[in-house]
Amino acid sequence: MPPPTAPDPRATGALAEGDGPRERIEAAAYRIFAERGIRAAGVEDILTSCGAAQAALYAAFGSKDAVAPAYLDRLHPERRAVIGAAVSTRWDPRPWPGSSTSSTQ
């Protein structure tokens, strides 16, 4: 088993030195969406948190709605891969009849 690696700081909404406006907006959105939810977060909240101008958000994303997929990409990269693989192979999560993993109701 390989040794554990440190998580990518960007996956937690952290910033790296030299990040540009898009990265700062993504990091701020990650924090605010996680705290309040996507619908409750306002564009002004995100911009105030990261110190970016409204023009930077619209230049990078086009709208607040376009920031949400970036948030989800940071939040669930592993889950997205597993779900994508399951969907592409038409994986059925139900256990085989008679298997030891069958649940009782």
From TrEMBL:
Keywords: DNA-binding. Pfam families: TetR_N. PROSITE patterns: HTH_TETR_2. It comes from the Bacteria. Residues 19-79 form the HTH tetR-type domain. Residues 42-61 bind DNA. SUPFAM superfamilies: Homeodomain-like. The keyword Isomerase does not apply. Residues 1-20 are annotated as: Disordered. One of its GO terms (molecular function) is DNA binding. This is Putative TetR family transcriptional regulator. It comes from Sinomonas atrocyanea.
